[in-house]
Structures
1.
Amino acid sequence: MIGNDIVDLGLAGVLGKSGDRRFLERVFTVRERDDIRLAADPDEELWALWAAKEAAFKAVSRAESTVVFSPKRFEVAADRSSNSSGELEGLVRHCGAPDCQVRWIRTPGFVHCVGVLEGGRSRALDVKTAVAPGKQLLSDVSPEGGLSAAELTSVRTSQSTAVRLLARKLCSENGLPKVEIIRSSAVNGWGAPVAFSASRPVGNAEISLSHDGRWVAAALLLR
Amino acid sequence: MEREAVFSTVVKVVSRFIRDQKLLEDIGGKTRIIEDLDINSARLIDVVLALEDEYEIEVDDSVLNRIGTIDDAIDVIIEQLEGK
């Protein structure tokens, strides 16, 4: 089970959020608030922790549809380490669920996090990810981006189109050409995205989508 | 508390967190806050905090998942107000 989340650090209200005490108390545990306060860049740390919680929630909710996104209950472990690619890795703990392994990309423009939950065996490094500016993906295509009618059902904004184009590209680069990225209607919004090929779900592929401001991000786990 | 009045307040609050005001043109009870209004989940927390201030209520995290649409937000507010 995978999830991913991206935060555009250039959006209004993003920088300076570490001074929003009420938001901090609502979202972060005491220890996480200490991590934010002591960080070299408290805002970037805040959004890195947020993205990890959100990515973990998306991963856990695929396994357990009734899970509630109570941000404090998804706690990002203090221990983090760099992997061979120089990316930071860590864990998100959620009561009653296996730990979710997470991996961050942190740049001046965005923070991206991918999380993977594999029944106790985490493998964040196996997840393929892609991040791009949405406008760049849309510049050479029609307004609908060549998406199918089924894909367009859950598309509301240009960034929704862009993130599906990115997910298609990611699939194509990993041996899954000509897929559709379809989200079915769920009780409160849309269900998790599913890759379809020739009108059938691709059983060995799991997709996660995220967009925020200028950026779109996709994650792919092949089993 | 009249539902229409709550609807107006919810729209007013939500509009403060929407980047593209054009998305408000067709807003209604069935509008999905995250998907249709392009509000991310961090901003949804801000929306909830602002609604708590507006109505002097506390929205428990356990009902956050229920707030998918504008109608859902209205239902939660009315329930909280009736339980006061």
2.
Amino acid sequence: MKPLRFLLCFLAAYALGFITSAFFSFAAKVLRDVDLVYGSFGLAIILIFVFAWLYFKGVPQLNWRHRIEAVLVWFLLVLTLDTILLFFFYKQSLRALSTVHVIVYCLVLLALFAAAYVQAPEHPKLSSPDLMHPDGGAS
Amino acid sequence: MFKLSKKAQVSLSAGESFVGFMVGVGLFGMPYAFAQAGFFVGMLYLLVIAVIMMTLQMMYAEVVLQTPGRHHLVGYVRKYFGKRWASGATLIALGANWGAMIAYILIGGEFFHALLSPYIGGSVTVYQAIFLLVGYLFIIGGVRFIARIETYLTSTLLVILLLIIVRGSLSIDVSNLFTYSASNVLLPYGVVLFSISGIGVIPEVKSIMGRYRNNMRTVIIWSTLTVTALYGLFALAVVGATGGATTVDAITGLGEVIGSWILVAGAVMGFLAVATSFLMMGIETQESLELDYKFTRLLSWFITMIVPLVVFLIGARNFIDVIGFTGGVFVGTMGLIVLALYHHVCKKGRKKKKAPGFHVPTIVSIGVVTVFLLGIVLELVRPFIDAL
């Protein structure tokens, strides 16, 4: 499972994501262009994909259940840290979140699953037999 | 030359494990609870709960001795009552572990703050947060060497404890002991119950005792008496020396009365003991989730971490309230589970016409159940009463 590798990749992705979002927020304020904030979201998702990809690359032996649990823990850690930052750093409530944030979290989840999928040597198969195939999809 | 028999050596080794397990973070909270409720009220709680816990540990020893193989509390519940009850017992055990971990974070942060804040500043909450974060980074690695260090640290903690008792008793002001507060009279219940519970270590004592396992009851009696005496003397020394100014962690208040050396020695030892206990508790919780629920290391780590983190962030800052609640609710429920197990095992034994090695009259069991049930209700209701 290499938990320390997981933690290192997660922390690197989160710290870099935080720095870039701070930079984009600063740039948006200076240039008075709110749309720049979306750039930080995009970059954060790319960073998460890259570091999750790096993590899964180092643990090719993980089965799908383990991969899903790793994705879940990564996502829940993002949520936890974001909530802590929102409450204690920015002193805001959950009302400050908009539909865009919900979409971004969905994209984060998607990026994590994509990274887990791309690095998996074997991909999930249908648990029920393929009735369209003469041998039930066994081959 | 003076030589101990094999049986005595094994019993001493088991007793050492037992005392080492029982002497923990609750020790630091006891003087404050006693000072708030009244010293003699606290001592009465200590004596009564020590007798109850001793009885309960003997009952659990009976269950452990009558059941072949090595299990933990949840394992015995699964064996005798089935999977559904075992899930409930797991939750109770997890709740007790999480409660203890929050207590470790709070008191560990206090010691950390006492040691470093004179040089680098910062609030207690910041030190508690650092303690929590660094602790969880270690827990994910599953540090095994901590287990070895803990044995030595517990011995050193006992030495420091004796030092504090001796030095503190020289500064006792008798008038400090004659305090009483009716509004805090229930405060020591959960704190004492949390501090004096040795249920978790009984299966280990059985393995240490090996073929001398029938001597377990003597070990339980002597170990519980030793711990009770240590706690009583520690509370006497601290409350006697600091009185109404007794602090939540006992050590910082004592440092102001006796001298800074006791603050440094106590805080260093307290911090190291709490840190290693925190790591051990975290690893134990993580491993039980891995084994019982077949979760991966990562998910087990996350579940181990998230509950104390959320409770801490929501605002649990009062060490006494945390150990009081954990003791009253979770240790109390574990006590009820042990009672149920004991009576089940005795009933099974009676069917086979096998007399139990340790017999508890039904009236005593009813009394213990009443105390624990009242304690659970009290600790659940107390936050609401305090809020009024």
